[in-house]
Amino acid sequence: MESARVAGFGPTVFSEFSRLAAQHGAVNLGQGFPDFEGPEEIAQAAIDAIRAGANQYAMTQGTPALREAVAAHALRFYGQRVEAHGQVGVTAGATEALYAALLAFTDPGDEVVLFEPTYDAYLASAQLAGAVPRFVRLRPPDVAHLTWWFDDAELEGAFSSKTRLVLLNTPHNPTGKVFTREELLRIGELTRRSGAVLVSDEVYEHLVFEGARHLRPATLPGFDDFTLTVSSGGKSFSFTGWKVGWHLGPERLVSAVQKVHQWTTFSTPAPFQLAIGRALALPDAHFVRFVDDYARRKNLLAGSLSRAGFEVLPCEGAYFLLARTDAFRRASEDDVAFCRRLLLEHGVAAIPPSVFCSPAHAPAMHGLARFAFCKSDAVLAAAEERLSRLR
Ligand SMILES: Cc1ncc(COP(=O)(O)O)c(C=O)c1O
């Protein structure tokens, strides 16, 4: 029999929509991975590492060359100083670090503050750890707010004497929000006051648009004490299948996460660690070209959606567009039903964003759909063509 820990876990909406998309030949703007290759020299670095014999267990903390590259990257992009040996750890993607952080910093019944909509793995990890989620709703842009925002009293109310962890994602999936300095300072103040750990998931750190600037919370005054930064090579270098992630921060936080890592996966594939270490050291020009290319894809898809009649919400970061579906959605449809019909009748797969919310707050997402723009020009052109028939 299944344990209570996994009760309620079933196939995700992502697998359902990917299956339906394949079955019906739909243009798949659902799942968030690029359908194009990362830099050739980085792929070659992985092949070279295999040929050179990097084929046995890597050190559990991570290959020294990758940890040094993570530390150098933190200094280069954020002026953040961390010691490669002690203040950096490596895991199987960011996902493992986030799961390990939940296990490392909470006991059953402890509380975790989460911003909703929230990346679905956070909730699953909280459930596995027996931690209790306390939600802060991100609310869509309105007359008074240019981007997604949260209510300060609601944020404060989410903290209690049981808060042990605050799980933040900036740039944010699925809203595209990049948290501002003022917002981060407030979140940090409450985190510090409650004695909790701030885990900052920054897997989209190199995907920031529209004049927004990604601020690494750990570099704000006083934050280095209680902040663990998590990131990975999947999104930044278009190698999501390699699952190389890392975390950095104070030694006591890194070593707690590493205690879980040691007894779950133990180590991360050695050749891919070496290749991602090389990727982190790519020249600045690579990162500029990368974000310019994504801005182009974003504008292409936003144009297609707007011309079709969707209202596209602002996207400051990550690689998803949220669009209002009011022009097409039937009165009886929620976002899941709408996305299913969009796929079956119009051949375009999108993700219903209510899957990123607890049942109580899911209705706030019913008028939206999430479209991924990490897709090749051919796929984006096919999406334009199919969406144009909706008009
Ligand atoms: C917010 C967020 N965090 C983490 C991940 C997973 O990262 P990784 O593939 O490195 O485990 C994703 C992937 O979609 C994500 O959107």
Written description of the protein model:
Helix content is 41%, strand content 14%. It is an alpha/beta fold and 391 residues long. The protein has two domains: 4-31 and 285-388, Aspartate Aminotransferase, domain 1, CATH 3.90.1150; 40-282, Type I PLP-dependent aspartate aminotransferase-like (Major domain) (Aspartate Aminotransferase, domain 2, 3-Layer(aba) Sandwich), CATH 3.40.640. It has a seven-stranded mixed sheet, sandwiched between helices. Strand 5 (163-169), helix 7 (181-194) and strand 6 (197-201) form a beta-alpha-beta unit. The mean pLDDT is 96. Bound molecules: pyridoxal-5'-phosphate. Pyridoxal-5'-phosphate (PLP) binds at residues 32, 93-95, 119, 169, 173, 201, 203, 232, 234, 240, 243, 245.
Brief summary of the model shown:
The chain has 391 residues and is α/β, with parallel strands linked by helices.
**Biggest pleated sheet:** 7 strands, mixed
So what's the overall shape?
globular
Strand content: 5-15%
Q: Please estimate the helix content.
A: 40-55%
Order of adjacent strands in the largest pleated sheet: 2-8-7-6-5-3-4
The H-level CATH homologous superfamily of the largest domain, spelled out, is Type I PLP-dependent aspartate aminotransferase-like (Major domain)
Q: Name every ligand kind in the structure.
A: pyridoxal-5'-phosphate
Rg, Å, rounded: 20 Å
Quickly give the structural class.
alpha/beta
State the end-to-end CA separation: 50 Å
Q: Which residue ranges are poorly predicted, with pLDDT under 50 across at least 5 consecutive positions?
A: none
**CATH architecture name of the largest domain:** 3-Layer(aba) Sandwich
Q: Could you say what the CATH topology of the largest domain is called?
A: Aspartate Aminotransferase, domain 2
Q: How many separate domains make up the residues?
A: 2
Q: Give me the strand/helix succession.
A: HEHHEHEHEHEHEEHEHHHEEHEEH
Number of helices: 13
Number of strands: 12
Q: What is the CATH class designation of the largest domain?
A: Alpha Beta
Mean pLDDT, to the nearest integer, reads: 96
